[in-house]
Every structure is written in structure tokens, then in C-alpha cells.
Amino acid sequence: MSSFTESRSEAWNRRASLPGSVDFTMMYIAHDAFNRDLARLIVAVEAGTPFTPDAVATWKSFAKQLHIHHTAEDAALWPRLHAAVDDASEAQLLKEMEAEHASLDPRVDQIDAAVDARNTTVFTSELTTLAKGLAAHMIHEEGEALPLLDRRLGQAGWDAFAKEIREQQGGIKGGAEYLPWVLDGVDKERTSKVLRMLPAPARMLYRTIWEPKYRRSERLH
User: Fold this and answer.
1) Which residues of the chain have pLDDT under 50?
2) Alpha-carbon span 211 to 182, nearest angstrom
3) pTM
4) pLDDT for 127-150, tens place per residue?
5) Which of 23, 84, 93, 105 could be disulfide-bonded to 152 (CB atoms 3.0-4.6 Å)?
6) Domain contains 157
7) DSSP symbols for 66-81
């Protein structure tokens, strides 16, 4: 794993001590997927192959999923929490979450432009900055914002947000793209846990069509 991002084991060891009772498994797995793709892209940069079809496909997939993820949080998660908090320090934390998104998201546009122009210098610089900033943001979110959600909204509030983000991802069509991507590299126990959340037809589609198609697709490993 890149030195700019956490490994999965490092992340789950840190999460083991976090407070609360809400099950944030899907959020954690999504965060791991972002770190995974950034680490793979940084390895490609270090190998001098940042713009191969596999690398470009990995970047485009990462950028799409990060945009969906941050848009859902900004539109559906932080506003719910803003309405539920009654403490100035809690409101400030939510402002920090929004500000961190605002500082990170333009990096994606810069990297998109660098990919289109095949500009290795800008791509490398912006990718490194994004990897460091996103890793720090996700740790901040997991350590403070998610425990705040646990306290103020509970499992019901989290489930409502999860439902909304699934709809924003495009239902079954979005799931066909999202699930194999997010579960890439996840251990069997957590993969099984995620798949148990799905209706039986979706589980069958994942195993027989979605995941095999993803494995055959252009992407970094």
C-alpha cells in the first residue's frame, strides 16, 4: 500500500477502537476502495505507466465513485446531521467535513485534465496531493463525524442515508458497477456480510455476471 494511504489492515485496526453502535461497514469498505485505487495509481506512476488503458480506467472509475460518494454526503448526510446537532462544536465539525470535500474535489478535475492531456507532471503532483488529503479526510470522518452520526441519528438515520445513496448510484444498474468495484480485494467474511444485505436475485447477479465482468475489465490490480 502506498505510504500516502492506509492499508486495509491498518484501517480496520484503527476502526476497532471507534465508539458507537451503528454498523458503518459499507462506509469503511468504500473508504478502503478509494485508498486501494489511489495506491494502485501511485504504483503505476512510480513504474512510469500512469496512462495505460488499465490505469486510465482505474482513475475514471475512482473519480466517478468519489463524486457519487461526496455528492451523497453533501446532499443527504451532512444536512441531516446539521438539523440534528445542537452544539457549536458539532456544527463546526460538519463545516469541516464540507470544507474538506471542497478542497479535495477540485483535485479530481485537475487530474482529469492531466489524464486527457497525458501530463505526467501534473498527474503525479495532483494524485499525490489527493491521496494524502483524502486519506486524512476519511480518518477524520471516521473518527469524529461518523461517531457524531451514531449519537445524533442512530442506525435509523444511517439506514435512511444508505437508501438514498443507493438510489443516487442508480439502483440495480448502479449496483452492477458499484458492488464489484467496492468489494475488490475485500476479505470473504466482509464480502459475505455485504452480500447478505442484498436481495437474493442481486446476490445471484453479483456472483454470476457483475463480479466476473468486473474481473475481465480493464483495471489496475
Assistant:
1) none
2) 11
3) 0.94
4) 999 999 999 999 999 999 999 999
5) 84
6) yes
7) HHHHHHHIIIIIHHHH
